[in-house]
Amino acid sequence: MTTRTALGRLAETAVADYLVAAGYDVLARNLRLGALELDVVARRGPLVVVVEVRTRRKGSMQRPFESVTYTKRLRLKRAVRRLWREQLAKMRDVQRVRIDAAAVSFEGGETKVEYVEGAIE
């Protein structure tokens, strides 16, 4: 596992823990839908959230949220539509899907999660 992959996994774990503390059930991590991937999928009642997790190494010039490009947003929306068709539409009690974003930083031995609900429309 590369350092970049390990950092990504740590960030996804931090976001999954954040969601569980907020009352969500984590349904999947690194969910592959063909060539598309969703970082974290969680559920609370009739709401399913798909979370794009971002992190940057110390000293990076770009902030994590800035790395969610237009193309990435389009791919996320396409993946969520596919998730709905293939899995969520069968679950009668799921009423809504929202795409959130989380930026995770690791500084001074502390993990910080910055979370934005409905970040991607």
CATH class designation: Alpha Beta
End-to-end distance, in Å? Answer: 33 Å
Roughly what fraction of the amino acids lie in strands?
35-45%
Name given to the CATH architecture: 3-Layer(aba) Sandwich
The structural class is: alpha+beta
Spatial order of strands in the largest sheet: 1-2-3-4-5
Beta strands, count: 5
Return residue spans where pLDDT drops below 50 for at least 5 consecutive residues.
none
Average pLDDT score: 88
CATH fold assignment: Trna Endonuclease, Chain: A, domain 1
Biggest sheet architecture:
5 strands, mixed
Give helix and strand order, one letter per element, not per position.
HEEEHEE
Alpha-carbon Rg, integer: 14 Å
Overall helicity: 25-40%
* SS summary, helix count: 2
Tell me the count of domains. Answer: 1
Tell me, what's the shape? globular
Descriptive overview:
There is one protein chain. The chain is α+β, with helices and mostly antiparallel strands. It has one domain (3-120): 3-Layer(aba) Sandwich (Trna Endonuclease, Chain: A, domain 1), CATH 3.40.1350.10. It is 30% helix and 41% strand. The protein is built from 2 helices and 5 strands. It has helices at 3-21, 70-86, and strands at residues 25-33, 36-44, 47-55, 96-107, 110-120. It has a 5-stranded mixed sheet. Strand 4 and strand 5 form a beta hairpin. The longest helix has 19 residues, at 3-21. The N and C termini lie far apart (33 Å). The model has no long low-confidence stretch (mean pLDDT 88).
Please tag this protein with its features.
alpha+beta; 5-stranded mixed β-sheet; Trna Endonuclease, Chain: A, domain 1; 41% strand; 121 residues
